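Students often ask why we bother encoding 3D structure as a string. The short answer is that it lets us treat folding as translation between two languages. Here is a chain of 339 residues written in the first language.
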Amino acid sequence: MTSTYRTDATGGLPSRQKRNGRRLIAQLLVCCGLLVPQMLPVAYAGTVAWQEDMRCGSDTSRQDRGAGLKEQVLETPNGSIGYFRFGHGSPIVLITGYRASMAEWNAYFLSDLAKHHEVVVFDNRGIGQSQMRGASYSVRDLAGDTAALIRGLHLKNATVLGWSMGGIIAQQLAIDEPSLVSKLILLSSMPPGPRAALPPAGVDQVLSGSGSGHFDRVMEVLFPASALPSAKACFIDDMFAPEGYAEPHIKDAVTHAQDLILQRWKQDNQALRGLDRVTVPTLILVGTSDKVLWPRNSVALTHILPDATLVEVKAGGHAMMYQYPRQLADRIVRFIATQ
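And here it is in the second language, the structure alphabet:
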């Protein structure tokens, strides 16, 4: 993957003011027809190569094994939101992805974040204890649910992290409610509008399927071939699994609603225009071997967002928080601390 006008990490990232100034000049050149959008400046922190760190449940130092960690429910005017809250420090709110529940987060990834931050994870509407009124909803409704959670828990200076479709929700939240987002982290996500590349044909059927062999097929989509043996052995044991929380069944109505959200996001030029005005510091993380949302989606996001930094993870798959839970958490913690 290549992109023009990147700033290499070895030379140091320019200051935010300089970076935004260069971007403004480049945007003026785009308007004059002297530069194509794909050539807008990109703050590129480089490609990192991390050692695979799947734990297979062998390390017991994880927050979800702690006594007293119980799911809580926030009642809002639109319904209820089931969530967990643990750790200490400035808050980080994590939004999960397509047909995913809180269980899909890697327990070691969350535990390392919780060493430095208060971690809040929750189920999107229609899943588990998160039951909102109305069967039909949009990405703005899901962003509104996240906003209601942040306000309801009185979270200040919150970092919002969205994985996959959760990154779409996080983008919409930053557009609609910028005062609620101190920093934005987009993990394996995609931009709105025509520059988005939807999952390849058949991937959505794999992720929403069931039956014999389903687990192996999902692993083959979420991870590169080099990580498959470890992923198949470790994924279940490394899932976030607090006592009393059972991975909920994803209803067909939820799958249908989320399918529509993905399809409409690719046509959402209003969100595309809004995203260009999101000024919060943003970290964009993508694996170079992501088979679900092509890495070029993350490159496009970095071109669109005014204050974004791109980090590519060599051989990282779509669920790379399982491959590199501690390294990924460390990179996120450092981003929050230095911006």
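Translate back mentally: Residues 1-15, 26-31, 33-40 have pLDDT under 50 and may be disordered. Keep this in mind for the problem set.
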